[in-house]
Amino acid sequence: xxxxxxxxxxxxxxxxxxxxxxxxxxxxxxxxxxxxxxxxxxxxxxxxxxxxxxxxxxxxxxxxxxxxxxxxxxxxxxxxxxxxxxxxxxxxxxxxxxxxxxxxxxxxxxxxxxxxxxxxxxxxxxxxxxxxxxxxxxxxxxxxxxxxxxxxxxxxxxxxxxxxxxxxxxxxxxxxxxxxxxxxxxxxxxxxxxxxxxxxxxxxxxxxxxxxxxxxxxxxxxxxxxxxxxxxxxxxxxxxxxxxxxxxxxxxxxxxxxxxxxxxxxxxxxxxxxxxxxxxxxxxxxxxxxxxxxxxxxxxxxxxxxxxxxxxxxxxxxxxxxxxxxxxxxxx
Length: 332
Ligand code: GTR
Hints:
Blueprint: H1 4-13, E1 30-34, H2 41-56, E2 63-66, H3 74-82, E3 88-92, H4 115-123, H5 125-133, E4 139-145, E5 150-154, E6 169-172, H6 176-184, E7 188-191, H7 197-203, E8 208-211, H8 213-218, E9 227-234, E10 238-243, H9 244-248, H10 252-286, E11 290-293, H11 298-304, H12 306-311, H13 315-330
Parallel strand pairs: 1-2, 1-3, 6-7, 9-11
Antiparallel strand pairs: 3-10, 4-10, 5-8, 5-9
The chain binds beta-D-galactopyranuronic acid.
The site of beta-D-galactopyranuronic acid has 12 residues, from strand 3.
């Protein structure tokens, strides 16, 4: 496992940070972290952003992505990004929950009706409100990337009702929302870094986890957990953040170039994402995984709804939820 100390030593070796954590070298590319392997759409999207950025700045600015979690877990690398040791970080919204409370909203189960609703909300005012809120926490929210719909998978049996989950241990991301969600369904939650899930499934430390098709496939979890049940309970997006510390060191023109390149990479990512979902789904189904639909999803959603109240007590969170719910009608 990559410890925070090891990640910091690596970054110091790269010249990203001095031993004091201060900026040493500004004539290098921007450094970005991503948990996923180098062929994953999020990594490719940031690489595409790098090309756009280089075009806009005559090659002065570009991005080097450290993929495959080389620099550590999303939570650890976020801390490093906040203090300025890393420039960019592509993470899921979930590990931001304990840092910036508005990021809890897009992680709420069954908030988005479908992809069209999600895009409308994230591309519109609610999405911008969440991105803007990151500045109070040492980060600049650049853009969202798609992360599809998360569903449960496990080593034991198909999940058709919450009762089927009883007694099982599910790995979740490091977020209270996810822990509460699993507990509300009557199962046990084990927060864990994604990189440890495969081995934990093999060893029986956990019985299952939840994720979208591409992550279920990319992490090879489908080889061990052969039941994938389409609950589609969460559509928490990926977020590309920049260290506020680094952002402030850029000229206005360079800030604009970074922001525009990030926004332009979103369309590229959406195309890559759609292709990857299709490929991952086909690969997984062809490998013999048992995939099942859930007849009555309200059995799940009704248990998870009380969690909205408990996890979003701030007026700003409540307003955001209302705004997003109002968009449900608008997209039809
Ligand atoms: C993936 C997401 C990762 C990470 C992962 C997880 O879908 O792309 O950023 O959040 O899920 O479950 O840890």
